[in-house]
Amino acid sequence: LLAVKHEWLDASVYLTGLLHDVIEDTDLEFTDVVDLAGYDVASSVRVLTRLPEETYAHYIYRVEASGDEVARLVKLADLHDHLDQIETLKPTLAKRYVRALRNLTR
Question: For every one of its 106 residues, what pLDDT tens digit does the chain have, with 9 covering 90 and above?
């Protein structure tokens, strides 16, 4: 995810953006991410990892409630990235992303 591209952001935000789906989408685990990028980045990636039993609304709530500003910024960038292609999204998915964006920007 390269949508997190503001010059004032530090390396941990970039790394978290690049790795934000790695636990969900690969066989890598939290400890692997710690080895690759350090504990702070891995912790933010863990916040951004949606749990199998978790609804999307609860996932967004958990990201917001975590207090992890890096995770929040990366999720916002991820949502903006998806919404930049809104014409390709199913209407229900677009609504979900817009609602999540509103919740994370309160």
Answer: 444 455 556 888 889 999 999 999 999 999 999 999 999 999 999 999 999 999 999 999 999 999 999 999 999 999 999 999 989 999 999 999 999 999 999 7
Give pTM, 2 decimals: 0.88
* Cα–Cα distance for residue pair 46/48, rounded to 1 Å: 5
Where do we find the tokens 């509103």? 102
- In whole angstroms, what is the distance from residue 73 CA to residue 18 CA? 13
**CA trace torsion 80, 82, 83, 84 (10° rounding):** 80
Inter-residue contact 97 to 89 (CB < 8 Å): yes
